[in-house]
Here is the input.
Amino acid sequence: MVEAAYRHHDLDWRYINCEVGPDKLADAVRGARAMGWAGFNCSLPNKVEVIQYLDGLGESAKIIGAVNCAVRRDDQFIGENTDGKGFLESLSEKIDPAGKSMVMFGAGGAARAIGVETALAGLTKITVVNRSVDRGQELTTLLREKTPTEVNFEQWNGEYRIPDGTDIVVNSTSIGLFPDIDARLALDMDSVTSNMLVADVIPNPPRTNLIQEAEAKGCTVIDGLGMLVNQGVIGIKYWTGIDVNPTVMRAKLEEIFAN
Ligand code: NDP
Here is the structure.
C-alpha cells in the first residue's frame, strides 16, 4: 500500500517489512537510527514496548499510550499514533464530529486511539461498550481524565440496543476479521436507524456483516480500509512531507485483500 503511493508519486523511497519480536526491539530501533531511516511503523505486540526506545511522543500518542508510527525529527525519533487520526480523517470526510454522540464497541488499542482522537475533535458524548469490565472501565477513566468529553461505560452482555440520539456507531473490536468473517456483533439492528453513521475498523474483509446490514438500513457507512489507508497517508506525510493520493493506496489494498 505504501510503496504503491511511492511509485505513484515517483518518490525514491522504500517501505520495508521486518518481523521484530519484543526481544529485538531495542536493537531494531538502534538500527533504524544508525541507518538514517525517516521513521517506521510498528504493529502489535510492539506498540507500547517501543515507547521506551523513542525520544518523545506526540500529543495523542502520549494520551493513548501506544505508538504505531515513529518519525525522525531533528535526529530524534518521536512516537505518533496515526490509527485514531486515520479514523478521524475518514469520519470527518462524512460528518463534523463536533457536538456528536458516539457508541463505541471495544476497549482495546483501536478503541483507545479512536476514543482519544474523536474526543479531542469535539465529540460531546462517548459510550464505551465492552465485554470485559476491566478494560472497558480503564478506557472510560482514561477518556474522562484526559479529554473534556462525557464518557459512559456499559458492559456488553447480550444484544445491545443503540440509544436514540446516537449519531455514530463504531465497531472497534476484532469481530469480523478474516478468517472469522461470518461473526456478528451482539447488536440489535432494529435500534440502528438511517440517520446514524456506522463505522467498522475491520479492514479485511472491508464489507463486514455490520457494514452490509447498516448500508441496507440506509446508514452512512465507513469501512476499515478508510482508517488503514488514512493512517498510511498521515505516516507518509510525516516521513516525506508529501500528501499522497489515498485512492491509489486503497486500490492496492483491495487488490491484496481480494487475493
Ligand atoms: P485488542 O486485542 O487490543 O482489542 C480487542 C477488542 O475486541 C477488545 O475490546 C475485546 O474485548 C474485543 N473483542 C474481541 N473479540 C470479542 C468478542 N468475541 N466479543 C466481544 N468483544 C470482543 O485489539 P485492537 O484494538 O488492537 O484491534 C481490534 C481490531 O481493530 C483488529 O481487528 C484490528 O485489525 C483492527 N484495527 C484496524 C485498524 C485499521 O486501520 N483499520 C487499525 C488498528 C486496528 P475484551 O476486552 O472483552 O477482550
In short: The two ends are 14 Å apart (CA to CA). Residues 102 and 168 are 5 Å apart (CA to CA).
